[in-house]
Design brief:
With about 190 residues, this protein is α+β, with helices and mostly antiparallel strands. The chain has one domain. The longest helix has 21 residues. It contains eight helices and six strands; from the N terminus they run H-E-H-H-E-H-H-E-E-E-E-H-H-H.
Length: about 190
């Protein structure tokens, strides 16, 4: 039976135990002050389940973002990667979705239009490598999205489902098994659909 994303809270202990079996190291969890510093620096809000997970323990080392080092160029690069990949596809592969309106006639206008669209969309928060979670809504249950340029897929309908998919061997669950329906996210879901 498939569970909806809101049927139960995330099992933080089971997730951390499985990730530790997968050789993921954890530093002490983010304090409220540290979480707010990251939110202020990048202009987003951690959804409740991601905030709780990071407060329980901060995954350490590549390919996880270090939210304690908010001025680290690698973290800024991870935050910018979704837009930069999309812009690459617009420039190099002539991608332009009908949802974005008419394609501007020159590159500068196309850049400005795409930048405005992405800036008004929920921010994508790096989880691990090219896996991201939207910041809105800020409640638990947002999907995790695999982002490579304009090639986006849901990699989990929730944060917990994402960990089950990414580390399925350590949970003893099937590979890539989306549980329930993914919450629709402004702008980003239209790229997936």
């Amino acid at each position: 039976m498939t569970r909806s994303r809101s049927s139960r809270p995330m099992d933080l202990r089971a997730c951390r135990t499985a990730l530790e079996r997968a050789a993921v190291s954890f530093a002490p969890g983010l304090s409220d002050t540290e979480a707010r510093r990251a939110e202020k620096r990048f202009g987003f809000v951690f959804p409740d389940d991601l905030r709780a997970f990071l407060a329980d323990g901060l995954p350490w080392g590549e390919p996880f973002p270090n939210w304690r080092a908010v001025d680290d160029p690698a973290l800024l690069q991870a935050m910018n990667r979704p837009f930069e990949g999309m812009w690459f596809d617009v420039r190099q592969n002539s991608i332009w979705l009908a949802d974005w309106g008419p394609r501007p006639s020159n590159e500068d206008e196309a850049f400005a239009r795409l930048r405005a669209l992405v800036d008004s969309a929920p921010k994508l928060i790096p989880i691990r490598g090219h896996r991201y979670m939207p910041d809105r809504p800020a409640s638990a249950g947002n999907p995790v999205i695999s982002v490579h340029q304009t090639d986006l897929i849901y990699y989990g309908t929730t944060l917990e489902n994402y960990f089950h998919n990414e580390y399925h061997h350590f949970f003893g669950t099937p590979a890539y098994n989306l549980q329930g329906e993914a919450r629709r996210i402004d702008f980003w879901s239209s790229l997936i659909e």
